[in-house]
Amino acid sequence: MPLSEGDLAVYRHTGHLTVAGLFDRGTTDALIADIEQWGEAFLADLPADQRAWYVDGGVRARTVLRKLDNPHHHRAAVRDLARTPALVGLVEQFIGPGVSVYFSQVFFKPPEGGGPKPAHQDNFYFGPNDLEGVVTAWIALDDATLENGCLYFGEGSQHGPVYPHVAPPEEPYNLQLPPEILARQPMSPAPVRRGGVSFHHGNVFHQSAPNLSTRWRRAIALHYVNAHTFFEQPALPYDDTLKLRIS
Ligand SMILES: O=C(O)CCC(=O)C(=O)O
Fold this sequence. Notes:
Elements: H1 5-14, E1 16-19, H2 25-44, H3 51-54, E2 67-69, H4 71-74, H5 76-82, H6 85-95, E3 100-107, E4 117-120, H7 122-126, E5 134-140, E6 151-154, H8 179-182, E7 188-190, E8 197-201, E9 205-208, E10 219-225, E11 244-245
């Protein structure tokens, strides 16, 4: 599916682009069932010292996961998703041919308290050798709306530098842009319907709000790199042996 010049211009200008309707309901429902099954098993075995990172602290009534790492490594259904020709064709139009998934995440954002993700730049976390060589495909498994915590982007911020991030002392992994940098950058909401994909540049500021609604906002983020890009100076540990060659 070739993107139009207009779509590519939007991506270059704003740092993100939403492509609607890439996956049908059968696919998103099957992925939800698969990650829920995995999530239950993961939670049952989760060591106490990792709960703060994986359990959603905003949902008081029950224990529910905030995220899971590297679903492309752990779940065949997510590998199939990452290899979908229409998706790969789009990824290659952003970063060039010969792509791999270097890292991936499930974001659960549960109803009635699912926590926010503070504003950040993926390229600060990843520290790639080429800032242009990374694109994230954020695949909406539910409608992501203003009410349930859709993504917000700092449009055009990918043209600026990657800024040093800060983290609260009790959450050293929760790296985020400092308030004085954010104060200069308006953030715009980007709702996505289920089955749509939000693509974003590794430098673009993005964040999500808490989910105070009664609906889930689940998504899978696949972080693709092109043939010559790798995480050279990552801020957190990433296991590059899990890299999955796609094309
Ligand atoms: O889904 C979210 O709330 C955060 C997603 C994100 O930061 C990403 O995909 O890079």
